[in-house]
Specification:
mainly alpha
């Protein structure tokens, strides 16, 4: 997966700052303490934007522009964070919204190690973002390094890709649990996304 875009650029800036601050232990410590928090917020925001854009595009292409406006304004803008259970670290509410077959397929997909790693990374980034922005960002103690945040982001991109395949599939056809499982695991079976 190519590493371009805002989040990877942000991480590359961090690496440059670490190199420049290496001569000042206190500067290095300050950057190492602060930058991971910024990366968490940037990563989670980017993942949210990707999911919203995918849903919006699919709805617009399959249903029409007016329904896409409704989806953007009334569902995604106000309820994105309700699509996932951040406290329990699971995306089951999102998948179950498409019916019981989707919920069952999601549960089975989680048995795949790569899929589960990517799902867990996505959920952890979203949950930690919520903790940061709602619990005093400046004093919040984040135990992850910048490298650990970017690794989670890489993994989470694989989950977002599978979620995008799922949305495209579900909006265009009637489906059964085994078909959904195949769609969810499409990118994860090859280990290319986030490994």
């Amino acid at each position: 997966m190519p590493e371009d875009g805002t989040v990877f650029g942000f991480y590359n800036d961090y690496l440059m700052l670490i190199e420049l601050a290496a001569v000042s232990p206190s500067g290095l410590a300050a950057i190492s303490r602060s930058y991971p928090r910024l990366l968490v917020v940037a990563s989670a925001s980017d993942l949210e934007a990707r999911i919203k854009a995918t849903i919006s595009t699919v709805v617009k292409d399959k249903v029409g522009a007016s329904f896409s406006s409704f989806t953007n304004d009334r569902v995604l803008a106000r309820n994105y964070h309700q699509l996932f259970d951040w406290n329990s670290l699971t995306a089951k509410p999102f998948f179950s919204s498409f019916g019981p077959e989707s919920g069952r397929a999601f549960k089975r997909a989680r048995e795949n190690d790569v899929y589960e790693r990517n799902h867990k990374s996505f959920m952890e980034l979203g949950e930690r973002r919520n903790q940061l922005v709602h619990n005093n960002f400046g004093s919040f103690e984040l135990e992850w390094t910048a490298a650990e945040v970017i690794d989670r982001y890489r993994n989470a991109l694989g989950f977002v890709d599978s979620l995008a395949h799922f949305v495209r599939f579900c909006i265009s056809t009637e489906f059964e649990s085994d078909q959904i499982l195949g769609i969810l695991l499409l990118d994860h079976l090859s280990e290319h996304s986030g490994a």
